[in-house]
Amino acid sequence: MSTRPAGKRRSLLPPIRFRERMRDRDTAIYGVLIIIALIFPLATIFATDSTFLVSQAGHAGTFVLLAIGLNVVVGFAGLLDLGYAAFFAIGAYTYALFASAQLQASPAHHAYHLPFWLMMFVALFVAAAFGAVLGFPTLRLRGDYLAIVTLGFGEIVPQLFFNFDQWTGGINAIGGIDQPSLPAWITGPWAGANGIAILQNFTCKPFWASSAAPCYSFSFDPIAYYVLVLILIVAAVILVTNLHRSRLGRAWMAIREDEVAAAAMGINTVTTKLLAFAIGASFSGFAGAYYGASFGLVSPDQFYFVVSITVLVMVVLGGMGNITGVIVGAIIIYFVLNSLLPSLPSTVESFASNIGLGFLNDRNGDWPGLAGETQRLQFLLYGLILVLMMLLRPQGIFPSRVREQELKHAAVQEEEAVVEMTHA
Amino acid sequence: MSQAPTENVLELTNLTKRFGGLVAVDDVSLHIKRGEVFALIGPNGAGKTTLFNNVTGLFQPTSGTVVFDGRNITGSKPHEVARLGIARTFQNIRLFDYMTCVDNVRVGRHVRMRAKVWDSLFKLPRERREEVRVTEEAMDLLKFVGIQRQAHQYARNLPYGQQRRLEIARALATEPKLLLLDEPAAGFTPQEKVELMALVKKILARGITVFLIEHDMKVVMGISERIVVLDHGEKIAEGPPDEVRKDPRVIEAYLGKSA
Amino acid sequence: MSLTDYGFYILCATAIVLLATQAFTNPKDFFQVTIFGLADGAIYALVALGYTMVYGIIELINFAHGDVFTLGAYIGAAILAFFAGANEGSFVVVNVIALLLVFPIVMLIMGGINITIERIAYRPLRNAPRLAPLITAIGMSFVLEGIMFMWHGAPTVHFPDLLPHGPGFQTTIGGVFFGFKDVFVVVAAAILVSLLAVFINGSKLGKAMRATAQDRDAAQLMGIDINRTIAATFFIGAVLAGAGGMIWGLYFNTIYYNLGFRTGLVAFTAAVFGGIGNIPGAAIGGLIIGLVAAYSDGYIGSKWTEVVIFGILIGVLVFRPTGLLGMRVPEK
After folding, report:
1. Which residues pair with B86 in a beta bridge?
2. Nearest residue of chain A to residue B104 (CA atoms)
3. How far, in Å, CA of A98 to CA of C237, rounded?
4. B59, B116, B57, B122: which is closest to B85 by C-alpha?
5. Which pLDDT does position C330 carry in this prediction?
6. What is the pLDDT of residue A20?
7. Does residue C304 belong to the interface with chain A, where contact is any CB pair within 8 Å?
8. What angle do CA A25, A27, A30 make, to 5 degrees?
9. Are the CB atoms for B12 and B228 separated by under 8 Å?
10. Smallest Cβ distance to C310: which of A155, A312, A378?
11. Partner C contacted by A201 (CB < 8 A)
């Protein structure tokens, strides 16, 4: 092993079977996800003759975006954020305020109708800025304190949107939010009368123009939003994957593994953590703008603690640190929360009638009927699912290889930090 | 910044560190010459690692100054110290356990890399080129310490001796002028100790000054040019190995006779 | 003293000056609000103790703790329903006996439930990544809320009104109204906290708890049974929370299934305020947060109270991360 030809430098690398396997699994999951994503609208529209499921999927996409973003904070950098929904709210309100008639009635007395495509990025930066502002004083503190500060922030933000009702409409929410539109000269399958006609013909007045021009508005078309959220997710996955395999991504992991050693290697831990926090928040802001547009309505109660927890659960159950796992986790949890649990009462009811226990379905005194009782069960079931999933598979469904190993060895290395002194 | 290199790489002047009532490092002054192997020895609890922590910015000295390469770095943050060119290993190995060896070393390259967030987000060509270069450099360093075959294993899965080597490779990746080794031979077999001494010589040949804490007298006497002995935070002796070995205060400190 | 210390003192001083102004200009309202605040704060203190003890010993934010508190109130209401009946609001011997019996029963039941929760949901994950027990804690919170939801549904539940009130059990001093209830809440909480203090400082188990909180491995090496000590911590936390739930019920006479969520967060804030892991700190933090909430309700408006409380939470962590009474610990 004394000398080697310069050209064969790479061949010195040891076999990288391990890496290949890891990539293989991810590639396979991405492949399956893309195929499902493409087939899903066709299949469901064909089967149910309605776009309801597609609009549900678009909504689920919001949570996938959120989970990808939170994964940067929690999975990569190991920071616990319990108030992620606050940044989601900030993104959604940024779009809603400047793309609806809301500010007409506010002390500003002027309605702004800025285009979605611009506001999406504005929302992204606003959320990132709030993330930085919140993170700056707190990230130098111990890890748990960050969790608590974010928890408090997550409680305050929706309450502020609620309280400043002159501006935000408070409990009355902001409705009539502008729909994204595409200029008419962008042609595609949506444009023609004989095409799929996803978008309807419309005229829009861009904020810089003096007169209206033909355009295609999304006008709550589930398929249009579905396509949009897919594009956003693909972009997010590419960007986050790039970050993960970069100088910054390694710095995040180093901090997660051992902050003191990371600092000794020249990593500025405060700014690096701040970047994780701000980048995570920016995804949330981005998702918020999409959510505001696709839902058409933004109100404070859409951003309570439950949302933060739900996204965190998606990240942890999917497999912290692993992007594919997080996506799958988000989809599964969304399905459980929005489809499986709500449909349970009627399923149970029909099952009871089928096996001859139909009398259980009737209301009787305190008994609210089987459906009613199952309805009440939802909370309990969700809790049980969380506990059982964590107990059975604490590393998540698709853990990053890292986490999997960590659990196998199960030796928790106590952060010794400054106590090295005692050994000196 | 092309000032003439000072003769002394590191100068500590009247360095003191107190923890409440405990004086861990008591008024220690010492200087390390460029290109030498300098050893810090002393019984357990003498304040050796505390002194390292004061140099590397993990602790703020209570009083006294730390001058590195002609620049006062007293009270600098750990990452600033690393950027200026001091790298260290830890007494109880602190690797990034669930990162591969090559990634551990690449983290060491962090401070010499230029990629900004935007470069990484969009994988710009210069970022790609830098990644390729850094990976090759990391592999070279793994080869330098002799663990290139383990490059893609998780750091925690390495045997103990290789973990120590990996920690040295990671520290070297920051391109230090001064390398601080905290008990690098602890728990080593005689064979491994010989290999370690050879490795230190190789590091020295790269023009890096080595400052080490070590308990094993064979290692200390074998590689270091000068030695400082610390006892209860105080410097009790300084000089070449042969002198220090004969110093009555040193013998007393090691035999545990309290004055 | 660092800059952040100054910030902390300036904030505290501003708040005190503002309140003092109120106390002088309108003493009657001020003291009335203070009494409400003390009564609330006493309950928060009882709940905060559970958070702080559990965090101190296993560094877990026990999200289910607020729901243990609520469940205590639900179980207390159910048992009291057997006793009281028509004696609500008056002073009769039956009520006294009922309370003397039901308080310990509820406290023991809650202790038992919390030990079970710890055994099932937290202990198996003690060596898992830190997020895992946090998620099961949230899951257990949902489970407990779900149980209460199934039991009585979403509407509020009436808690038997067994404390005497009305003429003869209230007084006004200088226009400030005092009821027996207000006194009862504060005294009951004070007794419980004192008992806890005696236990922690005096008993062998208390010592083991303190040792385990300091350094789990070292405590284990000294022959302390870690599992038993941690279980005891959960037991005591839940005993106090159960008592807190009972007291809340007796004071407000209205409980609902997700009462514990907000109460829990506020009590947790109190624990952080007093310096998380610090037992006297949690008690004092609870009182202060109760007062802050009352002053905020009274002078700023109740819709701002949550903002004020969580604003304080963030402010304390930024300006004085070790809390009011917390000890300076080296930062990790």
Report:
1. B178
2. A254
3. 48
4. B57
5. 34
6. 52
7. yes
8. 110
9. no
10. A155
11. no
Pick from C14, C33, C37: nearest CA to C23: C33
Q: pLDDT tens-digit profile of C265-296?
A: 899 989 988 888 888 889 999 999 999 999 99
- pLDDT for A320 equals 80
Closest chain A CA to residue B233:
A424
Q: Specify the range with the lowest mean pLDDT, choosing from A213-217, A389-393, C241-245, C301-305.
A: A213-217
Q: Which of A33, A14, A96 is nearest to A398 (CA)?
A: A33
Alpha helices by DSSP H, A72-174: 84-98, 116-138, 143-163, 165-168
Q: Which residues contact C289 (CB under 8 A, 6 or more apart)?
A: C41, C44, C48, C266, C267, C269, C270, C273, C309, C312
The reply to whether residue A267 touches residue B107, judged by beta carbons under 8 angstroms, is yes
Looking at residue B54, its pLDDT comes to 94
Touching A (3+ Cβ pairs <8 A), the chains are: B, C
Give the mean pLDDT of C83-111.
81
**Residue from C261, C62, C124, C143 nearest A384 by CA:** C143
How far is residue A135's CA from residue C297's CA, in Å, rounded to a whole number?
Answer: 29
**Cβ B173 vs Cβ B109: under 8 Å:** yes
Q: How far apart are CA C117 and CA C132, in angstroms?
A: 15
Residues 6+ apart with CB under 8 A from C152: C74, C257
Nearest to A247 among B98, B120, B122 (CB): B120
Under the phi-then-psi rule, with left for phi > 0, alpha for psi from -120 to 50, and beta for the rest, what region is A221?
A: beta
A139 near A81, Cβ under 8 Å? no
Which domains, ranges and CATH numbers included, belong to chain B?
Answer: 1-85+176-259 (3.40.50.300), 95-173 (no CATH)
Res A206: pLDDT: 63
Residue C109, pLDDT score: 96
DSSP state of A417: G
CA-nearest of A175, A120, A161 to A290 is: A120
The residue whose two tokens read 């696709």 is: A294
In this model, does residue C207 exceed pLDDT 80?
yes
The percent of residues in chain B predicted with pLDDT above 70, rounded, is: 96
Place of tokens 């279980």: C231
The 3-state DSSP class for residue B113 equals coil
| pLDDT value, residue C231 | 94
What is the set of domains in chain C, with CATH numbers? 3-319 (1.10.3470)
Structure confidence at residue A9 (pLDDT)? 44
Written as one letter, the residue type at C92 is V
ipTM, 2 dp: 0.92
Per-residue confidence (pLDDT) for residue C48, from 0 to 100: 94
Q: If contacts are CB pairs under 8 Å, which of residues 187-246 in chain C contact chain A?
A: 217
Q: Looking at the complex, report in whole angstroms how far the Cα of residue A198 sits from the nearest Cα belonging to chain C.
A: 41
Q: What are the chain B neighbours of A416 within 8 Å (beta carbons)?
A: 92
Model confidence, pTM: 0.87
Least confident of A13-27, A105-119, A370-384, B110-124: A13-27
- Residue pair B210/B179 in contact by the 8 Å Cβ criterion: yes
Burial of residue A331, with CB atoms counted within 10 A of its CB: 0-12 exposed, 13-18 middle, 19 or more buried: buried
Cα–Cα distance list, B74 to B54, B63, B81 (Å): 8, 9, 10
C18 pLDDT tier (thresholds 50, 70, 90): confident
C-alpha to C-alpha distances, A248 to A57, A388, B84, C5, C180, nearest whole angstrom:
32, 35, 20, 33, 62
Give the CA distances from residue A57 to residues A44, A65, A66, A225, A385, in Å, rounded to whole numbers and listed in that order: 11, 12, 14, 9, 22
Query: Is the backbone of residue B34 left (phi > 0), alpha (psi -120 to 50) or beta?
Result: beta
Residue A210: both structure tokens together? 């003096």
Return the DSSP state at A270. H
Q: Is C255 helix (H, G, I), strand (E, B) or coil?
A: strand
